[in-house]
Amino acid sequence: MAKLIIEGGNRLQGKVNISGFKNAALAIIPAAILTGSSCTIENLPVIQDVLVYRDILKKLGADVEVTDDGIMNVDTSKITECNLPNGLTKKLRASYYLLGAGLGRFKEVVISYPGGCDIGVRPIDQHIKGLEALGAKFSIEDNLLKVKAEKLVGNKIYLDVVSVGATINIMMAAIFAEGKTVIENAAKEPHVVDTANFLNAMGAHIRGAGTDVIRITGVEELHGGTYSVIPDQVEAGTYMIAAAVTKGDLIINNIIPKHLEPITAKLKEMGMGIEEYGDSFRVHYENELVPVNIKTLPYPGFPTDLQQPMTVLLSLVDGDSIVIESIFENRFKYIDELVKMGANIKVDGRKAVIKGVESLNSADVWATDLRAGAALIVACLAADGVSTVHDIYHVDRGYEFIENKFMNLGAKIRRVEDEE
Ligand SMILES: CC(=O)N[C@H]1[C@@H](OP(=O)(O)OP(=O)(O)OC[C@H]2O[C@@H](n3ccc(=O)[nH]c3=O)[C@H](O)[C@@H]2O)O[C@H](CO)[C@@H](O)[C@@H]1O
Ligand SMILES: C=C(OP(=O)(O)O)C(=O)O
User: Which parts of the sequence bind phosphoenolpyruvate (predicted)?
Assistant: First the structure.
């Protein structure tokens, strides 16, 4: 298994291009099943999760390839059923979008239980509630999720919690349902909007994505086409935070500034210089930063996916900060690793109380999940001495060319396979 060896203490400087958004890509790829046609999906990040989804579509019978520069050409016309009991879906969380997409097209789906980051229970009761409201019946047998419908009929669904996954799954299942579907208390995240935009570009009738009420009018069929995925706001936020942690000066290209407002606002509040130039930011350290409090919330609140790198930054800011993780109950596991590096952080349930320290020391640390891994890399970039981040496969699931991008900015990083 690969690890990264990082020599800390280098100020990051230069330009970085942000890749396509993992969490949008992983919804749009299965949405292509609904088209039953040929799609070209551009600006995909070439990451493990995207390659696993390519393999899932292939296994289902699609003609599919992903180019080195992130273009997927996929023809889903030859898929005849959505039956995948073989465990492939366990490799990623977003495989649960096969439920909505497969149900929409074939009225029946069988998949193994989805995987993904171990950051909490990650229930799917709201997905089930929504799909059943459209006429489907769920069952769980031998760790297989089974969903089936005679026919799908539009309905009004109120989500009890704001769920990105449930919103997208219901939206997909409703594409061919008879009549109108209304999702109330829908998630407003950019990945929900991007998936709706993809489906609309292929002939769907979805209105209101990006607000908390989404209305879908069933259509007879979709067609193929070309679509480009939005930039990854989580990757962009990770580099913005890395600029702050290393007291650096970065130009972050290929972003949508609006999607980054929750993070821009906090970094500015702390004293970072941020200037916007259309689809890029200059993010630079000016003066000593001040501590802030963070609470993760659904969009447009502070994203849970950036809680970990932000905690690393706060651990190096003089004074007291509090981070509350309100989305996932188990997303503080990496803090033990950060404490090994000299951070002063106490976790109490969903609250982390941070007392800023002057510097972090080098250590051997283990990535516990995707964003935890990215956060530990950022911590090691700032630490005194040479550190090792183990279990980098977590990071490879979701960050494209991470060490190359950091090395282009002046970081000293080497990837080593464990056998070496
Ligand atoms: C609202 C939110 O921040 N969503 C994030 C969540 O999406 P993801 O789609 O994984 O998670 P959801 O948005 O569905 O979950 C949000 C919350 O609702 C709860 N829940 C969800 C579904 C359900 O059926 N029942 C239920 O109780 C979850 O436990 C969680 O507390 O993780 C992704 C990967 O980190 C992020 O990109 C998303 O921005
Ligand atoms: C938790 C994440 O990924 P996943 O939902 O795919 O496990 C993430 O993108 O931060």
Answer: 22-23
